[in-house]
Amino acid sequence: MKPLRALLCGAASAALAAAGLTAAVAGQASGATADAAGLGSRWYAAAPYLMPLDNDPPNAPAIMDATGLKAFQLAFVLAPNGGGCSPTWGGTAPVSSDTAVAAVIASIRAKGGDVSASAGGYGGTKLGQNCADAASTAAAYQQVITKYQLKAIDFDLEEPEYENTAAIAHEIGAAKILQQNNPGLYVSVTTAGTADGTGWFGKQMLNEAKAQGFVPDNFSIMPFDGGFSGAAAQTSALTNFNSVLQSTFGWSAATAYAHEGFSGMNGRSDTGEFFSQADFQSVLDYATSHGMARFTFWSLNRDRQCSPPDNNGRTSGTCSSVPQAAWDFAKYSVKFAGATPPDSPPPSSPPPSSPGGGCTVTAWNAGTVYTQGNEVSHGGHRWKAKWWTQNEEPGTTGEWGVWQDEGSC
Hints:
Layout: H1 3-6, H2 12-19, H3 23-27, H4 33-37, H5 41-46, E1 49-50, H6 60-67, E2 71-78, E3 88-89, E4 93-94, H7 100-109, E5 114-120, H8 127-130, H9 134-148, E6 152-156, H10 165-181, E7 186-192, H11 200-212, E8 218-222, H12 230-249, H13 253-257, E9 260-265, E10 267-268, E11 274-275, H14 277-289, E12 294-298, H15 330-336, E13 369-370, E14 375-378, E15 381-385, E16 389-390, E17 403-408
Helix pairs in contact: 9-10, 10-11, 11-12, 12-14
């Protein structure tokens, strides 16, 4: 998805060596087990991203037991770091000789779940950049589909690849070929989000899809790392993206929503935005009420509270930097899929909603209404409201904003 992932994809080889998994176990990931899962497309649409080789991978079956989640979006399939047009995990672990990811898939399918594979992400070299044309790009992805008997695939098209028109033509063309050659394959396309829906390169990607006559199960945007502040900014971007889809493809609003998806980031984003459980619920309500086609997030590796809880204000690949119980955010995907997750206890000794804690006043919440004189903690500081406010993040509006900075806690 975004810059954080570009920093954390290099350890795949070490993870493979540490896994100690056998080819016999890997073989369980192919064959009839995928059919046994029998998942509907709604589960693939709800599958959160999981890095199976990096970022302290959590145990997928344990998440399934705790939340009711059944589908996972495995990230990321890339071209080899040394060049070439063959699929790897993270640029370093060839799909052709993989046993580690295959064993993860087998463990998920053994519990009645399934996976999708995501191609691309932020950073790294993509197959569309290295392969000569759409056909060779599709052939590389077909190796992934065949090895793991996949029923779903995601094309995560963003920087720097989506600035390369030839590479995007290869990726869109490959997606169309895979869709034709694998009947029933669930195909999602994910790209960057901006306040007006998506940026210039995202719109060019949509135009390429239209020119090629390609329509996936959904086009999803990622409304984070772009000056977004909570759910209201995200749903506004989704509304605007709906208009972009309408104007590009000639769809009605309802048809556009039926091809539109959301891909969020739980907790603290790369640029210091914060997205809480309340934000996820608000976006989920928007998605379901508008008949949207996908609701996912980056990532399950981050869906747990940091230790120490405040994480010193850093964005982490292995925790969310907000107060939470383990796998809180996964439960919103479960809800989108139409299932009911089990209740979980609130996090013990909740830290402030932003890192840098020690504050004794209540943590700021985007969905709460505050009036003059109300005090909150956020970002390790105490803040006092000057007047009525809701969903205005402390520290983002300057000295003339609604929040008065009363110093660090």
